[in-house]
Amino acid sequence: MRRLNKKKALNFVKELDAFPKVPESYVETTASGGTVSVLAFTAMALLAFFEFFVYRDTWMKYEYEVDKDFTSKLRINIDITVAMRCQFVGADVLDLAETMVASDGLQYEPVVFELSPQQRLWHRTLLLIQNRLREEHSLQDVLFKNVMKGAPTALPPREDDPTHPLNACRIHGYLYVNKVAGNFHITVGKAIPHPRGHAHLAALVSHETYNFSHRIDHLSFGEEIPGILNPLDGTEKVSADHNQMFQYFITIVPTKLQTYKVSADTHQYSVTERERVINHAAGSHGVSGIFMKYDISSLMVKVTEQHMPLWQFLVRLCGIIGGIFSTTGKWREYLLTTKNKIEFEMIRKEKLKSHHMTPLSVATHFLVVFKG
């Protein structure tokens, strides 16, 4: 009984077979069919190989939403070298509420302003990358995908002993400020508290020593991520006058970065620059120094690295294989039909010419050849 049921089930499954089987005696192999098969398998192998590289690749997805975090602090990462001695300059932040932010996280290090040959090569390479980023914004995706914690992005140390005197001051470190618009500035004299804001003690500094030529090795906002280049990294300005003002107007956009290598809350920013000479007699008023006025956008960008799912890769792979099989099958059928028609015409002409066969017998012979 069990054998009978099993046989019935097997027969039922055979009836559902949608792929008819042709007896081997009816199958004929030809050189054209073999050529088409070789071409088909070669095309399938190449397309499957390239599709695998598409599957391995990732892309960045950008989403926008309102930034609802107003209570946390904003971190400013700074590494700026000014062509003045450290005792002559001071750096601090004054926000929109006229609140002076403590600059305890900043360090003042006497250095040589001129770069060594190795440092100058590194600096030129950085400027070249920055120029490419301004021209091709898609390179930013490459930087996002290849960020590595601990990757060296700062100016390399000098490889030689400086013979020049320490004529510059490297101001580096970080500050925590409120998430409101503010002004980070470096000017003459150390900052001192004031009831209506703050002031800098610059009376004891001679105007002849003013030189706000500077180099911004690094300036970022939020969590510092080595490997990410910021718009002002590598900027170098040379002052043409003692009383020179450099202004940078910065718009900060909060950014949540989620890749397969790093996950961080950071900030991107755009910047416009302006510089002018302070000349009160000519109506150009102000204070000599470096001023970075920043404002924070209310929108937040979520940057997520995405990957093609496995099921989608398999579907695309099946589409490639099935499409090539279908196309080559139609092509081979067309070649075989054309070949049979040519053979029929040749046989018909030969038989009619020799009067050994009538047109009806030739047609009957063609049907036999064509179906076989």
From TrEMBL:
Picking any one GO biological process from the record gives: retrograde vesicle-mediated transport, Golgi to endoplasmic reticulum
Q: Which GO terms describe its cellular component?
A: COPII-coated ER to Golgi transport vesicle; endoplasmic reticulum membrane; endoplasmic reticulum-Golgi intermediate compartment membrane; Golgi membrane
Domain named Endoplasmic reticulum vesicle transporter C-terminal: residues: 167-327
Residue span, Endoplasmic reticulum vesicle transporter N-terminal domain: 13-98
Segments traversing the membrane: 36-55
Q: Which domain of life is it from?
A: Eukaryota
| Bilayer topology | Multi-pass membrane protein
| Family in the record | Belongs to the ERGIC family.
Described function: Plays a role in transport between endoplasmic reticulum and Golgi.
Spell out the protein name for this chain. Endoplasmic reticulum-Golgi intermediate compartment protein
The species this protein was found in: Sinocyclocheilus rhinocerous
